[in-house]
Structure formats: C-alpha cells, structure tokens
Amino acid sequence: xxxxxxxxxxxxxxxxxxxxxxxxxxxxxxxxxxxxxxxxxxxxxxxxxxxxxxxxxxxxxxxxxxxxxxxxxxxxxxxxxxxxxxxxxxxxx
Length: 93
Hints:
Elements: H1 3-32, H2 38-45, E1 61-62, E2 68-69
Antiparallel strand pairs: 1-2
C-alpha cells in the first residue's frame, strides 16, 4: 500500500467520523431542549407593564407651531386639559 492510498483511507474515515460527530451533536441538542438556555429564562422573566401605566397614544414630537404630533396608529387622541379662564396680563402702571 502506498502513501496515497493510506492518506485516502485516513481522510475518508476522518470525514465520516466528523459527519457522525456532527449528527450526534445535533441529536444531543435536539434532545436537550432549551430548558437551560439563557433565552428561555429571559423571556419568562419579562413581564408586561400594566396598561393603566401608559396613556393610549403618546406624542412623538412637536410641529413648528408647538402642537403635539401623534402617530398615525393612534385611534383616539388624548383630550387636552380643560382650559380655565384666561389669566389676565399684568397691567403696567
């Protein structure tokens, strides 16, 4: 047997061993599941904030005139506070 044949046999069996090792690794990960993965704990730990804490539509900016700008997704805009009697301007004496 010459060197070329020995090298070919070695390379062939090494490749086969690598394929089997990869399959065993994938099977192990599939059977193991994600119970101990950090992502599973992070998603379970996140809790949604109560809806009462946030108004339904929050402003996203101001126009040049100073008016509030709301998202196009807002179905009900928050009502403006009731305007009380205007405060009279101070009169210079």
